[in-house]
Structure to design on (278 residues):
């Protein structure tokens, strides 16, 4: 366990699923160097990390802390210079090329700050894309994509194009596209960074809802402690090292677009506003 320097809103996380051995992610001594010799830069310096199945985790830290590099390694977009990484019991440390792509396509999904919907395709067709790449038959992938849109509360907007959607709706379509293949791990990189406050809270509420309903492991990369307080667990990086790893105390609940809030969490300011008597 990393040194506990304290983090507002969080406390000790002993007894978690990861601590008990039900792990989706196991990392030991993960290091990442860029360059060589005296000019080498250490982006990660000996990271040890366990994440359990169906955990909701925030990975936070300032710019240059190594959180984006760690996310790329977690998502099989990059390989560590040293250390060992097991995903779902499979040693993926040195996977490359087609093998890494296949495993990433079947187990890992991404949601980014930049939404990246194709403007010439409807919401439904955008969600179908990863299923088409996986060569799923047309009828099956269309039905799967429709279900994914319904899971984010946008089944009624399946025929709309990206320029007919609000920013929050477009991000929810991107989330539907991410979950349609049925991943075990969802990595979200500053997913609310381009959204207004209310739309951002709706996205965070959707993550909480999908985590509970689908049993997804969700890791959100953020610099914002408020976003981190919507997770179950907060991990802080500084200078390529984990310096705090704690359960979130006083977890915030964001309003779900599906109307299914987590009863065990404290409501956010906007949730309180929406529920306040007239």
């Amino acid at each position: 366990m990393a040194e506990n320097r304290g983090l507002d809103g969080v406390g000790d996380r002993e007894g978690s699923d990861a601590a008990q051995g039900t792990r989706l992610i196991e990392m030991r001594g993960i290091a990442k160097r860029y360059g060589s010799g005296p000019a080498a830069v250490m982006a990660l310096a000996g990271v040890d990390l366990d994440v359990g199945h169906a955990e909701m985790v925030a990975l936070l830290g300032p710019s240059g802390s190594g959180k984006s590099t760690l996310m790329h390694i977690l998502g099989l977009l990059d390989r560590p210079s040293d250390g060992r990484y097991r995903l779902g019991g499979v040693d993926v440390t040195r996977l490359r090329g087609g093998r890494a792509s296949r495993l990433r396509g079947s187990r890992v999904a991404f949601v980014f700050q930049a939404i990246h919907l194709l403007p010439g395709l409807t919401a439904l067709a955008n969600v179908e894309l990863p299923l088409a790449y996986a060569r799923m038959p047309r009828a099956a992938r269309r039905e799967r994509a429709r279900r994914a849109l319904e899971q984010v509360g946008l089944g009624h907007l399946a025929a709309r194009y990206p320029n007919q959607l609000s920013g929050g709706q477009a991000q929810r379509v991107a989330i539907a596209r991410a979950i349609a293949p049925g991943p075990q791990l969802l990595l979200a990189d500053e997913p609310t960074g381009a959204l207004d406050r209310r739309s951002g809270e709706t996205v965070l509420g959707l993550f909480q809802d999908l985590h509970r309903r689908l049993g997804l492991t969700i890791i959100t990369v953020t610099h914002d402690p408020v976003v981190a307080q919507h997770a179950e667990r907060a991990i802080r990086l500084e200078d390529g090292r984990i310096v705090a790893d704690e359960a979130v105390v006083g977890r915030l609940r964001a309003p779900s677009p599906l109307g299914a809030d987590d009863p065990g969490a404290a409501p956010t300011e906007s949730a309180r506003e929406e529920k306040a008597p007239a």
